[in-house]
Amino acid sequence: MKAGGKMKYDFDSPVSRRDSNSIKWESPQLLKNMEISNILPLWVADMDFVVAEPIRQALLKRVQHGVFGYSYVDESYYQAIISWYQRRHAFAIDRESICFSPGIVPGIAYLLRLLTQPGDAVLIQPPVYYPFAAEITNAGCQIVENPLLEDENGYYRMDFADLQEKAKQAKVMILCSPHNPVGRVWTEAELRQVADICFSHDVFVITDEIHNDLLRKNIRHICLASMYPEEQRLVTCLSASKSFNLAGLSCSSLIIPDPDLRRRYKEYLQQVVHVSSPSVLAQAAFQAAYLEGEEWLDQLCAYLDGSIVLVQQFLFEQLPLAVFYPPQGSYLIWLNVSAYVQDTQAFVRDLAIKTGVVLENGELFGAGGRGHLRLNIACPRGLLQRALQILAQQLKSV
Q: DSSP state, 50?
């Protein structure tokens, strides 16, 4: 930040995303029943902020070169990833363990096909990011749920007694850390208990840690693999796409310590997926993010902290029956509105059609999602405030 606490980057000024093929703002399915001039989207998890200037400059430099032929991945790309995770998360990544994936969800899908047979059981902790369940089903596996426990304040914890029982039948566990949508950043003790249960039952753990940089002040994320540096029944899924708003560049990393699994994964990418490395633009953007994006990210997190305070105050004044525990990680709000409405699926549909405010229905996230809404607050506060006002009016009128 500049002297006096003023931010160098501007997160308050609206940025028009029209005519940019934004799924969040203008996908044909979204606009089928509403006017684009009326839309206030707080749903899909990308941000309405311009990326860090070093990323823009890196992309401009690469585009101005003008030639986009076949390319290899330079060693500096991998070193940028290694440097970032050592610096930000005290996670020492072995260079050879870094594998490309076009996204976290595709990476998980590929891993499930390598780690399981049809009919095997895969553990998840609902309410949780709904593509997990879809990819388990697509792999021909059974979903085994270890539901999180919500207290009266909206704070979630794991049910370890249930996990101990469920792990006996599971082949793989997908751990969301930080958790989407409930916003928990798991403590070292919680992570150790999960890992000890899983490894004692020979359950392979896939961790989705895509939200690991989007933390509240004084909250620390621990990469599970940093606690178990010799463990090979573990894959860590990472990306700068959430942290730096680069999802459209389709680039993620899987940290695969097991040499045999790593070999089979790379063969799968080459022989089945036929995409085995990031694009030239993704390389430029992600390397710039990891090497020069820290100032922007720190200012973003401070801005998000302020937006969460805004949400807290608004709910206290306008929706006092809503239950909300501030997310420790991510820019997603998980809101229990069951005192106002139970059928959130119908409510979210009607809210979008009537007002243009687009949220995520909590039931999408599985067990425990009924009566909940997920809101994406990674937008200018003026937009957020307008959407919250409309949401409050509609909830009060149900």
A: P
